[in-house]
Amino acid sequence: MEIMTDHGFRKTIKIFRAIFFISLIAMACVVIVLAGILTYAKILGPPPLAVPQSTLYFSDDGKLIGESNNGQKRYWAKLEEISPDLIHATIAIEDRNFYNHHGFDYKRIAGAVIADIRALAKVQGASTITQQYARNLFLEHDKTWTRKIHEAFYTIRLEMNYTKNDILEGYLNTIYYGNGAYGAEAASQFYFGKKAADLSLAEASMLAGIPKGPGLYSPLSSLKNAKERQAIILTSMEKNGYITKTEAAAAAKQKLVFTGVHKTQKVKVAPYFQDAVQNALKNQLHLDERMIALGGLKVYTTLSLKQQKAAEKQIKQNVARSSDIQVALVAMNPKNGYIQAMVGGRDYAQSPFNRAVQAVRQPGSTIKPLLYYAALEHGFTPSSTMRSEDTTFHFDDGRADYTPHNFNNQYANGEITLAQALAVSDNIFAVKTHLFLGEEVLKETAKKFGLSTKMAQVPSLALGSSGVRVIEMANAYSLFANGGKRVEPTLITKVEDYHGKVIFEKKSQTEKILDPARAYVMTQMLTGIFDPKLNGYAKVTGSTIAAELTRPYAGKSGSTETDSWMIGYSPQLVTAVWAGYDVGKPINLSTEKSYAKKIWAHFMEEALQGKAVKAFKPPKDGVVGVYVDPANGKLATDDCPVRRLTYFVAGTEPSEYCTEHLKNGGGKPDNRETVPKKPWYKRLWPWG
């Protein structure tokens, strides 16, 4: 018996010894595996935290005008931009030991396992905030062991490489609150119409309950369930010392108002402009489409909400609903090229084609100011004269004869000045000037003014036979308005990534590409289209809208068989308007021919309402203002029935006096004015 007992004892010792060594080996293996996992996690480094977020677009005064929309609303808010009550409510209900564990709450896991065993079903979750964040960032929400292993590994990487506040911020910005709202900021905007930073305790505790089951606990789905969940959260916040019992009771009783609308659904502003901005992000800033759509960018634009509203309003009011004609408008600040308003068509829903930037249309006579600026460079002055008469041009190089015509075949059948030719839009004067300068001059001048479209080197180029874009014509006229400074059409002033880091910011430029004196002389000539003193064989082309204008403007209208234009400016704003049919159908109705001018005039007046009335400021030197007889361009005498103050590049002003109206004893006063006694526009307009 003793032998058997002794044998049994030794056998038991061997078994325990084997178990002990096996346990040691197993423990060593576990330690090695854990060490390997931790080492591998450290080698991989911090996982990226970027998640798809909506890109936001802002107007020039910082108001939200739109966002990229992929069916989800995401906005990244820093932890300090989220209500402390929402932070505390989330920790209290989701992971009260968040700041004390390293990614896994083992005590909570054990409790969940016991609860599940007792219920013979999965009744309690044990995922920490870090685990949930890992799932939101990197993984599909399936229920497989592979997913759980991956989730655990990502959890380790997050805890090893990021602070608790980084993890908490990320979680609050990625958790789903239902109705397409991802993150606290989007949810706050959707449910309460306010920023996450401004949530009250009652609102925060209500919001914190939704992620457990958005379809079940959303107050828009079931207010009863939402209130019950809110009560649980307030109790948990009280137990964890975040609030007092009195505060919890007051929050539970507070009546909440829910908006249930995504803010940007109300804000569909300037769709053509926003398309142009997205195109600029892609082609000018070279951002890829995914970054633009889902990168959480903040794009600060040049759009003026006031001017955009005015543009859309005037197009709607001035164009007959029954007409199929299309309209494009670009308004620009001439000092910096900032696009303040843009309309690319009458109805974006029907046609998103942006005629303001994409269409190439014949500019007609609106090209003439560029031609005449080149003429000033080659010795012309506002008083230079040529004959206006029915003319056929013959060419020695074998080209066919060319016979341009004036509107309604009206001609002066005599000499007219450059200033008057521009004001009444005489085509014969323009073609003669073009051919005199050489057909290559206007082509090169157009490039200098920023026109990128191909210009045909032909006689008809002087009458706008080569296509241009509306936005580039607005930019070209900006050079006159700002005294010759280079500008380029600008839609974006700044872009920030989702961390708030500036990745693009517009830099100002001051390069002069036009002579300031000649640019000012051109501006003064362009005021002539509104001045009846320059009426001749035809009325000035701006006569139909001049009575509606209440401040100094310069501009030029233009028309072809299929296109109608009006481009003009004040010192503060340049606007180009085009009207026509997409298919190149002729514009036959007189009312449709007037749309561009009417829209331009009414828009400029409304857009500038409330702004100071400014005159065009001459350069410090280089120009001289003298009174001339507008019919012949010679210095006016006291006997001339019409005298008009006209500006010239210094040294080119006329020296010959008008003798056509001299009476016996009539004098020839020295009427030069380098510094007028009062602003020029007060002498030009009757209301001055």
TrEMBL record:
Spans through the membrane: 20-41
Pfam families, alphabetized: Transgly (PF00912), Transpeptidase (PF00905)
Glycosyl transferase family domain: residues covered: 62-237
Gene3D superfamilies hit by this protein: Biosynthetic peptidoglycan transglycosylase-like, DD-peptidase/beta-lactamase superfamily
SUPFAM superfamilies documented for this protein: beta-lactamase/transpeptidase-like, Lysozyme-like
Entry superkingdom: Bacteria
Keywords per UniProt: Carboxypeptidase, Cell membrane, Cell shape, Cell wall biogenesis/degradation, Glycosyltransferase, Hydrolase, Membrane, Multifunctional enzyme, Peptidoglycan synthesis, Protease, Transferase, Transmembrane, Transmembrane helix
Keyword Cell wall biogenesis/degradation appears in the UniProt entry: yes
Compartments where located: Cell membrane
Catalytic activity: [GlcNAc-(1->4)-Mur2Ac(oyl-L-Ala-gamma-D-Glu-L-Lys-D-Ala-D-Ala)](n)-di-trans,octa-cis-undecaprenyl diphosphate + beta-D-GlcNAc-(1->4)-Mur2Ac(oyl-L-Ala-gamma-D-Glu-L-Lys-D-Ala-D-Ala)-di-trans,octa-cis-undecaprenyl diphosphate = [GlcNAc-(1->4)-Mur2Ac(oyl-L-Ala-gamma-D-Glu-L-Lys-D-Ala-D-Ala)](n+1)-di-trans,octa-cis-undecaprenyl diphosphate + di-trans,octa-cis-undecaprenyl diphosphate + H(+); Preferential cleavage: (Ac)2-L-Lys-D-Ala-|-D-Ala. Also transpeptidation of peptidyl-alanyl moieties that are N-acyl substituents of D-alanine
Residue stretches making up the Penicillin-binding protein transpeptidase domain: 328-602
Signal peptide per UniProt: none
NCBIfam families listed in its UniProt record: PBP_1a_fam
Protein name: PBP1A family penicillin-binding protein
